[in-house]
């Protein structure tokens, strides 16, 4: 299992580095983080922000971008392979493909220097990195697995990607609607079931308010349940992929 | 190597296979024939454990694909109909990457030998995206042969190949099965490939096996039911035919008939009898492709043909 995962992960990373599409993704993601970092540290108004606030904003952005990338990779995992005619040869080989974890690992490593750059002189950089890994990883992997499930069931990159991106936009809405609206009944209800919001609230709690781990357990359960559910759906769908 | 008894399989509530039987022994090159949509590819996917069966017994290389699919696939080389590749890779890179799924590490010499065997030489160093269809077919055959399998399953392996390329692939397959311990399941609609390569065939239509056996035995049986085209001077009386004769249809003055006669007797006495019944026969042509006869008479193509002719 691990061997085949590693074989596919190596191919996926080579494809990202060597194919035109992969380079576009990497450059776009790098450009997005660079621009955001530059804005945060150079803008005369934003540069007045507390460093912890900057780190918090970067953590949320990295998680959203990570989930988007996971959705793109997840949609390609089955439907993309099917559309290129490469899925059946893979299924005919003795393998159990799952390269997403490795892909998220690459993503996380990519974001670390940016967090360091904008938060090195501020507070709670260590907790930011720790909680981004602990909460951000399940959220991102969940979106990846959900897209893989849709990709396997529908056999269509377009359908799986659009569905997950729509769901991702809904989930990431706490980033957009601001703290005022999040205090309303609707905002609080959304926060209670939304794994994305759960992770964001944890970042807020530990980076800005310096609260301890014990406060985060309910949110940790939420993101873990999200990952477990998505993984279960993905495993069931991957057992009966639409490949013909 | 393959034993299938009464395989039934449904996909999303629709019955796709409803009575497939297949028996492939070591040393066999088995031709799986049938019209488009007959269920050939689905049968292959059931054999590989990629489709769950509803009922019936399936055994491949001594195991049940429902339980041991991954282990069975280690000993099987497969060339699916859609032979897709990662177009940014070169052929040697691709073979090396794919071989790792089979826990083998190909050396540069191994890669070169495999590619030369299928007729891919120096041009194999280019990205696969620049290959012609025929080159991709050759690479797909190399991929199927790469794990040194006990059983080869090939779906339309000579599609897109020129005559020389087809002959090279034929030679490879014959060489592969010649040691008597390995087998080939060849799924094709090219009867010429089957004629040249296979010793046994199975014909399936509408998800059911219509016929299975050795080609030699089937042709011997079929000789009792040969088809002819007769050019007649006048329209004959088709209501009063000799025993063992069937009219399949006509086009102008040409009439297609099927006659059942014993191989030892031949049809000449029948022509005399027909003449006596008013059939003014000007010309007789045998429709000689015997394998084609076997195929047509068991796939429902006969009915379509008769309707077209009539």
Strand content of chain B is: 25-35%
The total strand number of chain B stands at 13
Fraction in beta strands of chain A: under 5%
Encode the helix/strand succession of chain A as letters: HHHHHHHHHHH
Instruction: Determine the number of helices of chain B (DSSP H or I, runs of at least 4 residues).
Output: 11
User: Uncertain runs of chain B with pLDDT below 50, 5 residues or more?
Assistant: 302-310
N to C succession of SSEs of chain B: EEEHEHEHHHEHEHEEHEEEHEHH
CA radius of gyration of chain A is 18 Å
Structural class of the secondary structure composition of chain B? alpha/beta
| Share in helix of chain A | over 70%
Radius of gyration of chain B: 23 Å
Largest sheet of chain B, order of strands side by side?
5-6-7-3-8-9
Distance between the termini of chain B: 44 Å
Structural class of chain A: mainly alpha
> Looking at the structure, what is the overall shape of chain B?
elongated
Largest sheet of chain B: 6 strands, mixed
Question: Taking all residues together, what is the mean pLDDT of chain B?
Answer: 82
Largest interface: A-B, 22 and 27 residues
The average pLDDT score of chain A comes to 76
Count of DSSP-assigned helices of chain A: 11
């Amino acid at each position: 299992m691990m061997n085949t995962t590693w074989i596919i992960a190596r191919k996926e990373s080579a494809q990202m580095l060597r194919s035109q599409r992969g380079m576009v993704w990497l450059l776009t993601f790098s450009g997005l983080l660079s621009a955001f970092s530059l804005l945060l540290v150079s803008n005369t108004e934003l540069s007045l922000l507390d460093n912890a606030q900057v780190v918090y904003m970067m953590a949320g952005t990295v998680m959203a971008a990570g989930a988007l990338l996971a959705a793109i990779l997840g949609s390609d995992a089955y439907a993309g392979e099917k559309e290129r005619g490469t899925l059946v040869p893979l299924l005919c080989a003795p393998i159990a493909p799952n390269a997403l974890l490795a892909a998220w690992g690459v993503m996380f490593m990519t974001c670390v220097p940016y967090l360091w750059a904008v938060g090195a002189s501020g507070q709670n950089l260590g907790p930011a990195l720790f909680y981004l890994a602990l909460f951000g990883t399940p959220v991102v992997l969940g979106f990846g697995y959900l897209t893989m499930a849709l990709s396997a069931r529908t056999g269509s990159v377009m359908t799986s990607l659009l569905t997950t991106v729509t769901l991702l936009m809904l989930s990431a809405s706490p980033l957009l609607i601001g703290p005022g609206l999040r205090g309303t009944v609707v905002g609080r209800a959304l926060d209670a079931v939304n794994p994305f919001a759960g992770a964001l609230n944890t970042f807020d709690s530990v980076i800005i308010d310096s609260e301890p781990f014990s406060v985060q357990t309910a949110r940790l359960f939420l993101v873990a349940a999200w990952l477990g559910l998505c993984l279960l759906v993905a495993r069931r769908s991957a057992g009966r992929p639409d490949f013909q | 190597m393959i034993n299938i008894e009464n395989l039934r399989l449904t996909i999303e509530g629709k019955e796709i296979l409803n009575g497939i039987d297949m028996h492939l022994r070591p040393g066999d090159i088995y031709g799986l024939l049938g019209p488009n949509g007959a269920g050939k590819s689905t049968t292959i996917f059931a054999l590989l454990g990629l489709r769950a069966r509803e009922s019936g017994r399936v055994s491949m290389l001594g195991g049940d694909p429902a339980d041991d699919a991954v282990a069975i696939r280690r000993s099987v080389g497969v060339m699916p109909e859609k032979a897709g590749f990662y177009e940014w890779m070169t052929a040697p890179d691709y073979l090396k990457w794919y071989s790792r799924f089979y826990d083998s590490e190909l050396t540069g010499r191994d890669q070169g030998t495999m590619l030369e065997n299928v007729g891919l030489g120096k041009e194999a160093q280019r990205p696969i995206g620049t290959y012609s269809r025929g080159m991709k077919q050759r690479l797909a055959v190399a991929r199927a042969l790469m794990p040194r399998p006990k059983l080869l399953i090939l779906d339309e392996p000579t599609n897109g190949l020129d005559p020389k390329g087809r002959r090279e692939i034929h030679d490879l397959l014959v060489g592969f099965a010649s040691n008597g311990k390995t087998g080939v399941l060849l799924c094709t609609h090219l009867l010429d490939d089957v004629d040249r390569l296979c010793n046994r065939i199975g014909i399936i239509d509408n998800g059911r096996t219509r016929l299975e056996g050795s080609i030699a035995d089937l042709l011997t049986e079929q000789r009792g039911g040969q088809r002819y085209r007769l050019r007649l001077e006048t329209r004959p009386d088709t209501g009063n035919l000799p025993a063992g004769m069937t009219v399949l249809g006509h086009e102008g003055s040409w009439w297609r008939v099927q006659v059942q006669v014993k191989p030892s007797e031949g049809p000449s006495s029948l022509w005399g009898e027909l003449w006596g019944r008013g059939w003014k026969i000007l010309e007789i042509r045998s429709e000689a492709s015997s394998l084609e006869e076997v195929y047509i008479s068991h796939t429902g193509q006969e009915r379509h043909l008769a309707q077209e002719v009539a």
